[in-house]
Specification:
With 629 residues, the chain is an alpha+beta fold. The protein contains 20 helices and 22 strands. It folds into four domains: 241 residues, no CATH class; 80 residues, Calcium-transporting ATPase, cytoplasmic transduction domain A; 123 residues, HAD superfamily/HAD-like (Rossmann fold); 111 residues, Calcium-transporting ATPase, cytoplasmic domain N, CATH 3.40.1110.10. The chain is elongated.
């Protein structure tokens, strides 16, 4: 509990205790003192509990901001004192402050769920300078500098490991409790905690461009972009509050003139009307619900850049995916080896030697599959044939490795009955030796992602890719996607996306999910852009509205579920608050609801709405079992 909350709680307890003693004494008429003594005694708890409300109302009036809840509470309670209803005046202010305490605690709880991310900011970096480690502010470290991260320390900047291996705790960024093993050559991002070994890292990004800085910026700005519901409530309160003030004035003046009833009676009803009409439940609970939803999403490793995006996501109808890096891992692996006249081991060895000096992803995948050291002395000649492949002389044997064009160029008779994927054909001394199939692996999480999207009501799942049609259609078939558009350039992707947007239902949203630089224009054009931030490019993360900090596409369904739940809570609060207030306002105007009924209609509804809004923070049902504790 914050100092402000503790101070308010202390005032509530003191004023409430004083009031609890006074109320039965005067209601049972055990004391028959002068009226001024009664006024003075009730003013004590009123001043203790309400001085800050009166001060805020006076300050806002001096600034021209007259009509707010502070003004309504001040007018209503002061009016009650003028009418001699001291107990009611104190009770209204006391219970209003109880509602404020609930509100403050709820907001703090929501903020803490997001503020936990703020702990990811590193305090220092150990930089290697002149052969010694120097502890400096991360903002002082330049690209190319070498930093050392010891066990228990947080990685301060993005970079690549040049020495050491360790296990990283990435939960603050990704929401995943499972640690990640890293070794030399792997990229690491700032904000993760080094758990075991010492790591030496070459810095690749300055602090302002690092992952941790971007995450903190997203979190800090998340509340700036309001949802349609929040904007509606803001506009509603702007007109609603002065309207009820004027209505209360009319209620206190017109009926006595028409009916001849006592002015006192209708002034009391008008004050009750003011207390009832205070829009606290709406003004507080709606943004609090969205704030809770954003906080809940952050627990799951999903950053939502504003409540407007969280609201729009509930109306998602079509989800469009990029392929490479989003549904697939984006790294090539040898999936099949089909020798002819050679053993599998011999074919893979010759391919690894032929591709030894190449850094192409296909070459590196073959080298990784071979997994042994290459003896360069065995390679006598290497010739790259542009657009075709490589010719090498290995152990005095001519080896060709490449595509079908290379086979035709050299007059090699080969079998073109091969599976879908990237195929490397090999020939040895002019004789066809077989082929190696290389494919981009589908992420283990991708089938689950598509299945869950369909289960929550997504009408259409689509894939856009620049890959060959056979490759794209194979991936789409395995994932059971509804449509797949292949062989697209970045500009073609935007054009195809616009066609899909024209086809979707009115008021429904199209979501695009991508991770690469070439996805940035499509992410920006979609109704909602989601970037796979775990391995995604900076351009994609900047263009997106929502960032998934892990490499799991199933988190898309998770954040849509959170969005639907949050929006449901928002509408529950709006309908409940308006319905109760409308009923009690009518009863108050007709004299059937007194100040105590007004207290329930205002403070009671606010507390119930706030407690309901806090439910948006509970995302345990959306977390994996290992995190759902």
């Amino acid at each position: 509990m914050s100092k402000k909350e503790k101070s308010l709680l202390k005032r509530i307890l003191i004023a409430g205790g004083f009031f609890a003693v006074l109320l039965p004494v005067y209601q049972l008429e055990m004391v028959h003192g002068p009226p001024r003594l009664e006024l003075l005694l009730f003013l004590i708890p009123y001043a203790i509990i309400g001085w800050d409300i009166l001060w805020k109302a006076a300050r806002n009036i001096s600034r021209g901001q007259v009509f707010d809840e502070n003004f309504l509470m001040s007018i209503a309670t002061i009016g009650a004192f003028f009418l001699g209803e001291y107990a009611e005046g104190v009770a209204v202010m006391l219970f209003y402050q109880v509602g404020e305490l609930f509100q403050s605690h709820a907001v703090s709880k929501s903020r803490r769920s997001i503020a936990d991310l703020m702990d990811i900011r590193p305090d220092y970096a150990n930089v290697m300078r002149n052969g010694a480690l120097v502890q400096v502010d991360p903002e002082e470290v330049a690209v190319g500098d070498t930093i050392v991260v010891k066990p228990g320390e947080r990685i301060p900047l993005d970079g690549v490991i040049t020495d050491g291996c360790s296990t990283l705790d990435t939960s603050a960024l990704t929401g995943e409790s499972a640690p990640r093993d890293v070794e030399v050559g792997q990229d690491v991002i700032s904000g993760c905690i080094n758990q075991t070994g010492v790591l030496t890292i070459e810095v690749r990004k300055e602090f302002g461009q690092s992952t941790v800085a971007k995450v903190l910026e997203l979190v800090e700005n998340a509340s700036d972009k309001k949802s349609r519901s929040e904007n509606f409530i803001t506009r509603f309160a702007r007109y609603y509050t002065p309207a009820v003030v004027y209505a209360a004035i009319a209620l206190s003046v017109i009926p006595p003139l028409v009916t001849g009833q006592p002015l006192f009676l209708w002034i009391e009803r008008a004050l009750t009307f003011l207390v009832i009409s205070c829009p606290c439940a709406l003004v507080i609970s709606v943004p609090l619900s969205f704030f809770g939803g954003i906080g809940g999403a952050s627990k799951c490793g999903v950053l939502v850049k504003g409540s407007n995006y969280l609201e729009l996501l509930a109306d998602a109808e079509t989800v469009v995916f990029d392929k490479t890096g989003t549904l697939t891992k984006g790294n090539f692996v040898v999936s099949e080896i089909h020798p002819q006249g050679l053993s599998q081991e011999q074919l893979l060895e010759l391919a690894a030697y032929t591709e030894h000096f190449s850094s192409h992803p296909i070459a590196t995948s073959i080298q990784a599959a071979y997994g042994k050291a290459v003896d360069p002395e065995r390679i006598k000649e290497i010739e790259e044939i542009a657009g075709h492949g490589i010719r090498a002389l290995i152990d005095d044997r001519e080896v060709l490795a490449g595509n079908t064009k290379l086979m035709r160029l050299k007059g090699i008779s080969y079998s073109d009955d091969t599976p879908v994927g990237t195929v490397v054909y090999l020939a040895v001394d002019g004789t066809y030796g077989g082929y190696i199939l290389i494919s981009d692996e589908i992420k283990a999480d991708a089938p689950k992602a598509i299945q869950e999207l369909k289960e929550i009501g997504i009408r259409q799942t689509v894939m856009l890719t620049g890959d060959a049609d056979a490759v794209g259609q194979k991936v789409a078939s395995r994932l059971k996607l509804d449509k797949a558009y292949t062989e697209l350039l970045p500009a073609d992707k935007v054009e195809r996306l616009e066609e899909l947007m024209a086809e979707k239902s009115q008021k429904k949203m199209l979501v695009f999910v991508g991770d690469g630089i070439n996805d940035a224009p499509v992410l920006a054009r979609a109704d909602i852009g989601i970037a796979m931030g775990g391995l995604g490019s900076d351009a994609a993360i900047e263009a997106a509205d929502i960032v998934i900090m892990t490499d799991e596409p199933s988190k898309i369904a998770t954040v849509i579920k959170i969005s639907k739940k949050t929006l449901g809570i928002v509408w529950q609060n709006i309908i409940f608050a308006l319905a109760v207030k409308a009923i009690v306002l009518i009863l108050g105007a007709l004299g059937y609801a007194n100040m105590w009924g007004a207290v329930f209609a205002d403070v009671g509804v606010s507390i119930l709405a706030i407690l309901n809004a806090i439910r948006a923070l509970n995302v345990n049902a959306f977390l994996p079992a290992k995190q759902n504790r």
